[in-house]
Amino acid sequence: MTPALPRRVLITGVSNPLAAEVARRLASQVPSLFGCDVADPASALEEMDFVHADTRQSVIGKLVRQLRIDTVVHMAVTVDSAGEDRAAHETNVIGTMNVLAGCAGPSSPVRRLVVKSSQAVYGAAPGDPSFLTEEGAGLDRPAYGLKRDLFEMEQLTQEFSLRTPECRVSVLRLGYRVSEGTTLGRYLSLPIVPTFAGFDPRLQLLHEDDAAEAVVRAAMLGHEGVFNVAADGVVLLSQAIGIMGGKALPVLPPYGRWLGRLALRAAGVDLPGHLVDVLAYGAVADCTRLSSTFGWKPAYNTRAVMDSLARGKDVEVIESPSPPQEYELQVYLQRRRRRQGNGHAGTTLTVQR
Amino acid sequence: MTAEPATVLDSRELRRRSRKAKVVTPPSPRLRLPRPIRRLQRQAPVYAIQGISGLSTRLREATGREVIDMARVVEIIQFLYQQRELARRGPDYAVDDFGFDAQWTESLLPLFKAMYRDYWRVETTGIENVPATGRALLVANHSGVLPWDGTMIKTAIFAEHPHPRHVRALVASLFMGMPVLSWFLRRTGQTVGHPDDTRRLLERDELVLVFPEGVKGTGKAFKDRYRLRRFGRGGFVATAIRAGAPIIPVSVVGSEEIYPMIADATPVAKFFGLPYFPITPTWPWLGILGMIPLPSKWRIQFHPPVRTELFQPASADDQHLVMTVADEVRNTIQKGIYDNLKLRRGVFV
User: Fold this and answer.
1) CA distance A257 to chain B (A)
2) Structural element, H or E, at residue A65
3) Domain A8-314, CATH
């Protein structure tokens, strides 16, 4: 059975760069597109109607019914929270709960739901199999921080999909992204990168383009289920640092890793708890379900993702923007604003550019 | 230089018209040693080889036998140069999805071959039972406090097999959480002992090595040497049947004596989160020197394969069949150990 194409699409959290990119790609493919977020979008998209709406309050239900939305792309999920565990919990668990409540009920017109999640839901541990499959979201070890929030969020989503069989739900566990704004990206671009002594894990990454493409495909084709989305192949952490032109300095203590985390915070990089585990043990997801169901796989392999980050490191100044560059410029300025606004982006990091 | 006048004129003209070139000077090093010393630095390896070969000839004339084997010296030099080349490749090398760096692993093989030939004088039999291509599951007994037996099985197949192959061993997840070991094991092709990993490796037609005894085997006391422990729950048989891979039992003799474990300091092991903390005649009394293994005499035997690929994949769920095959493999290995112990003249000869 091929489900009907989406007609009226709502994107939550549309002001974050990835969701904005998804909106830009969806704009040409769907008749009407709506976006909502707390903050203003980076750039106005002509085809999209923007609404100020907070997923943490129960307004989505009204919005969905009023606008007769048939597809909700839930992107208001924090997958890279550094330090603000409280806020991430509110956004991820409470926000998703509200969105799901809004989409539920017999009066709901929603027939398709795409939820953004992250590979962080697996965490990382030495006893993990080398490739994490979708079923392997760990229950066997204590979850904390982002990992627990995402896990709770996915549980809510799964309950929703069981209770509402008429709505096709896809959950995308996006791999770790290393674009300029992410914590991992900033960590790898340090001139001297402190690593955990005696560990050189495998990293698997995902390019921003592929992340957006995966969400768009899930929204357009409505593949049901949970999917890992990550690039092919791996690079070792030391390789990744080498590609970025930095130097790995194995100084962080291999045992008692929270100490290393504190030291990093003092140095200006606030690594979230789940990334600390990834930088010690590495986590690689198995994406065969994605390629077999979607008939598509990420265009960039992990090495190419690293290379593109390394290239992007050299490109910084934009002079006299020509119209086609307007969008990129807006995104760039927004990221810059956000970095300055949050303050935690670390002044030490901007020095090396 | 025999230039015709016309060309000279042209070049003069060109020179006159051309812009003045910017002189680019090479970046000057901070400290530049005097020329004779630099020449000496450059020539040092050559002088060293000449000196060693001269010494070797003189010693041979004096004693009448080969004291310094020049082939070995050349091997060592080759090894050092290869390591330098590998250090130069920077981040531009590829690892497979499991984190295996074949080039780097092969560069370390001379070290392990030296251990194999000269230190433990390993005698390998039945190498023809290991297939040159395709998947197979090697199942071996596990002993010695540190997993040297794994490295020697890997080296045996690389050194003796007509078609050298990399063996991918499965290690306890505990080692993957340890500093240094965690990256060394992955980089040399090992992976976590998880059924899912075994399946993936076998499906890629790799040669997979598994020690069903696990840490129960390596951590057994010296008085229990050459007595096989329980073979897990036969999970390796089920995985082999599902993947359609034959099982090749391997008996290793000699690894029990490399670290004679007198006692196990359980409280210390608990404190460090280790499965056992060995007390041997040398460890921990001599510190790092206590980690040097004893030069026992080794024998490795590869047995004829158990044709598990002939079973239906569904029969992997038949617990009775699985346990029968596991027992059969265990008995083959145990018998092989006794046979090879008889063939060995002494522990160290």
Assistant:
1) 12
2) helix A60-67
3) 3.40.50.720
